[in-house]
Amino acid sequence: MQAIGTIYLVGAGPGPADLLTLRAARLIERAEVIVHDGLIGPDILTLARPDARLISVAKQRARHTLPQEDINALLVREALAGRDVVRLKGGDPFIFGRGGEEAETARAAGVPVEVVPGISAANGAAAAAQIALTHREASSIVSFVAGQCKGLSEQDWSGLAGKGRTLVIYMGVSTAPQIAEKLMADGLAPDMPLAVIENAARPEMRVLRGLLAGLPDLVEAERVKSPALIVIGDVTARDDIAVAALAQEAAQ
Predict the structure, then answer these.
(1) Which residues fall in a coiled-coil region (predicted)?
(2) pLDDT digits over 28-50, tens only?
(3) How far is CA 149 from CA 51, 56, 80, 176, in A?
(4) Which of 119, 127, 202, 221 is deepest in the core (most CB within 10 A)?
(5) In the prediction, which pLDDT does 60 show?
(6) Which of the following is catalytic: 37, 84, 92, 234?
(7) Is 225 a catalytic residue?
(8) Is 52 exposed, middle or buried (0-12, 13-18, 19+ CB in 10 A)?
């Protein structure tokens, strides 16, 4: 009977190879098959062994190389053929990475699966921008939400952001107007400070500061593109650069 391979759901962190965990780097170096997202940096993929098969399943808004169901089937098929598979994801596999769906599919097929955590996009972006998601004087609660979730207008976001809280929004660039409207409708002050972090931890990273009411204009004027995170809360206004940027925003 042919041996079954293992599926490793590996978090690649925010981008640079030196932010990988040691476990992630070692698995990439030995994997026979690597199924990777489009945001995985080329320096990470160069760690793969010369004969490894690299399969891109890059996702972009309104266009997927492979539907998620097909990715699940691909992982199981390769493992059942006796190959160890690294499913390489930006950030952490279990934070908006669909790792839960892939792990469930693997278990249902009788395939061994291991999850290797990575530095999440929220942690990586906040650290690169030197924004502390928690701060004794500003925030003791952090919430993560998806900005492209279905039924956005019907969800209750009250209490997710405000005094003593930090809100991190993934995948929110294209829905920035709806996000600002939703948060203000649910009670958040229009002058709540925020930061938009584009290409976190990469050489081209930008940190843009503003206020909640001005979020749509900020994203449009600066032509913000994914990958980008929106961080909302007083923690984004705790340095001189942030204070100056917010004062300029308020004066406009």
Answers:
(1) none
(2) 999 999 999 988 988 999 999 99
(3) 39, 24, 33, 13
(4) 119
(5) 60
(6) 37
(7) no
(8) middle
